[in-house]
Specification:
Blueprint: H1 2-8, E1 12-15, H2 30-58, E2 61-65, H3 77-97, E3 103-109, H4 113-116, H5 124-130, H6 133-138, H7 141-156, H8 163-174, E4 181-184, H9 187-198, H10 201-213
Parallel strand pairs: 1-2, 2-3, 3-4
Helix pairs in contact: 2-3, 5-7
Protein name: BDH protein
Pfam families: adh_short
Keywords: Membrane, Transmembrane, Transmembrane helix
Length: 214
């Protein structure tokens, strides 16, 4: 293994670290927003900057773990926010690194919650107990329970074939011509992304509002 890398140098960096949680915007304290930005966004940027000189030197690859949730959100807007931000960081980095022969790839998994355990089932009781008095005055326990049930039902539908995402990561690192983006998702999830990307915002809002009301 060492003899193999001696000629290749530092070839690939995979930014995979990420955390997830559930909650509407006002339910989460500022400290949670700061923590998520620090891990999901700034963590990847720190690692990238640290290894950038070696990656330029050896014309390597940089792979980032994003998500289709960068395009829309169904109760985890804080996670969606960080993934949308990392996508834009990658878009800038990909263009800037072309002149050095460094390729930047983004992996966009769909729902693999059952494979990764990144998001355990949420507890409506715990969410309610952590709400500020201001939020408790606006919402009620029944609403929080409904949203928690909805989110947990999504988690339970997650794919257990995590190897599909790993295969995309391997291809991004080893293919002679890697893709800029690898969307590894079910047809229904790809359709949501398609609607979000190409239709007016009001259409996507209607689709998501309908889903949330079910």
């Amino acid at each position: 293994l060492l003899s193999h890398f001696s000629s290749t140098g530092f070839w690939g960096l995979v930014n995979n670290a990420g955390i997830s949680t559930f909650g509407e915007t006002g339910w989460l304290p500022m400290e949670t927003y700061e923590k998520f930005a620090d891990v999901n966004l700034l963590g990847s940027i720190r690692t990238t900057l640290a290894f950038l000189p070696l990656l330029r030197k050896y014309k390597g690859r940089i792979v980032f773990m994003s998500s289709i949730i960068a395009y829309f959100t169904l109760g985890n807007g804080i996670y969606s926010m960080t993934k949308a931000a990392i996508e834009k960081f990658c878009d800038a980095l990909r263009l800037e690194m072309k002149k050095f022969g460094v390729q930047v790839c983004i992996i966009q998994p769909g729902n693999y919650a059952r494979s990764t355990k990144i998001q355990p089932p949420v507890s409506a009781e715990e969410i309610w107990n952590e709400l500020s008095e201001e939020e408790k005055a606006v919402y009620n326990k029944e609403y929080v329970q409904e949203r928690a049930n909805f989110f947990n039902s999504i988690l339970s539908e997650g794919s257990t074939n995590g190897n599909e995402v790993v295969d995309a990561m391997v291809d991004a690192l080893t293919s002679p011509a890697p893709k800029a983006r690898y969307m590894v998702a079910k047809l229904k999830e790809k359709a949501l992304v398609f609607v979000c990307a190409l239709f007016p915002t009001v259409v996507m809002d209607s689709v998501l509002s309908y889903a949330l009301s079910k």
